[in-house]
Amino acid sequence: MQVSPAPGADADTLPEPFYAYAPGTPARPPPADDLSRLPLELLLRALGHLSPADLLTMSGVSALFHELSQDESLWKAHCAADWADKKHRRLRLFPYYAYTSSVILSRMSRADCEAVLGERGVDMAAMPEAQSLEDAADDEAKAAVLRPVVVRTTPFFAVRATSLSKWKASYYAARIDSTRTVMSEHELTSFEWYYCDSWGHYGYGQEDDDDEPKELTADELKKFPVVKFFKNGLRGPLEGHRPRTCSWTLSDTGHVQVSQYPPHRVRRTPTWGWEIANGWVTYRSK
């Protein structure tokens, strides 16, 4: 099965891949061995001690373990553990996965849809479906209105791969997306950014372009002014007068241009944060 890498990523260095599975069956398969005769609750408890890679292996053992290995609670727990130290990653379905499969869409609740759309920066009040959403009688009816919007607003850089579990999809899509080096306007304008220049005003020397971005400690970061890329096309400080306000643009391919300064290179940090840098200024997502 083909997996679409994030823009700027090398397909040969993607994190663990997705695997394609057959659709689930409504009934428990006949037990083929003593292990399969155990109560499902015990089997799920045991599978909860396995790593994601081991879960993928177990899914090929039998039809039963294929079904159990897709359990949403197992993969949500792996997301919680994997994202605990990551920037900009809350325990919600990952927004930059292409939720186009009817199987996964059917499992997305109203809250799931709203979380995905919110993190994509979709203004739900301005949607053509806004009135239908307001008229929907209950959460399931609202989810039915929102699911097509989730599909329609899939960004061009979304990870596309086959999965039967929405949380499993989120787990692997987030890992793949951690190498993405193009930004959406919503990401750029929703984050606050540490402003670090190379003139020594804030005691920061620009890293060499060939160096991997390094994580800075909270004490190292707090000396830098914080700026914002505002939706009106201006970049400016949240407090004080430095750095001065100037314009910014974002290309169709997600690359940032600040005023007339040299182009900025976008990179990711080890904790999935963002770094936008040229030879003069480095912005680090807060």
Mind explaining what this structure looks like?
It is globular, with a radius of gyration of 22 Å. The protein has helices spanning 40-47, 52-58, 63-68, 72-83, 102-106, 110-119, 130-135, 139-152, 166-177, 185-190, 218-221; strands spanning 192-197, 226-229, 234-237, 246-250, 256-258, 265-268, 274-277, 281-285. The chain has 286 residues and is of the alpha+beta class.
Mean pLDDT: 83
Taking the alpha carbons of the first and last residues, their distance comes to 36 Å
Let me know the largest β-sheet: 8 strands, antiparallel
Q: What class would the helix/strand composition place it in?
A: alpha+beta
Helix percent reads: 25-40%
Strand and helix order: HHHHHHHHHHEHEEEEEEE
Contiguous runs where pLDDT drops below 50 for at least 5 residues: 1-25
Give the radius of gyration: 22 Å
The coarse silhouette is globular
Trace the largest sheet across and list its strands.
5-4-3-2-1-8-7-6
Number of helices: 11
Number of strands: 8
Content of β-strand: 5-15%
